[in-house]
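User: Could you write out the 3D structure of this protein bound to zinc ion? I've included everything you need below.
Assistant: Certainly. Input first, then the structure.
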Amino acid sequence: MLFDTHVHLNVDHFNEDREAVIQRAIEAGVTEMVVVGFDHDTIPKAIKLAEQYDFIYAAVGWHPVDAIDFTSEELQWLETLASHPKVVALGEMGLDYHWDKSPKHVQQDVFRKQIQLAKKVDLPIIIHNREATEDIVSILQEEQAETIGGIMHCYNDGPEYVQACLEMNFYISLGGPVTFKNAKLPKEVAKIVPIDRLLIETDCPFLAPHPNRGKRNEPAYVTLVADQIAELREMTRDEVGRATTTNAHHLFRLD
Ligand SMILES: [Zn+2]
Ligand SMILES: [Zn+2]
């Protein structure tokens, strides 16, 4: 029982063998996953996959890198999609200060608008954060995101921000980086997050876990993330899988 809470099976990297990738995920023990759409191209594809497969859900949001392209039309579109029965969250949304296609103030504005929409439609949110932790936390606090909660996807900070996230009703999701030999912070975080607030993900096709680092990632590799967390917490893969699946069900209201 493994719930991969963040996959991009909706991108071109999987065009040649999408069905085989999904089959390998099932064989590896992946029982559910959320396909995350983040722009004009990937959002309809996320919905389509969720309609095609019982155990696949969709999240829809606008990526901060492309915030500059977000207008009231996109906002309206997301609001319409939010009522789709297989859409379980809004996102990914957030801030990405690594790339400068969209100025910071534009990213912040688009982030706030999506949080406000999520509150209106009452869905949890999936946060993408790159080099912007302070601003992410402030905006979530200012917008009172604790009423909806959500996921800090591919959490990449040390233990110092965990408490603030937990207080805002957010879950901490760990992916491939927790398995990297030189990744001290994710390993520390894996040990201290309360088990009832931990999630696992691949973020495939990106960030493949060790020993597949650098290759195309896929949902079957979430087993490697679960195994690493199990080792760090002195649990079994099954226990990690059960706990994180229960958490995902609770957050996405799938019970
Ligand atoms: Zn992301
Ligand atoms: Zn993503």
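The longest strand covers residues 87-96.
User: Perfect, thank you.
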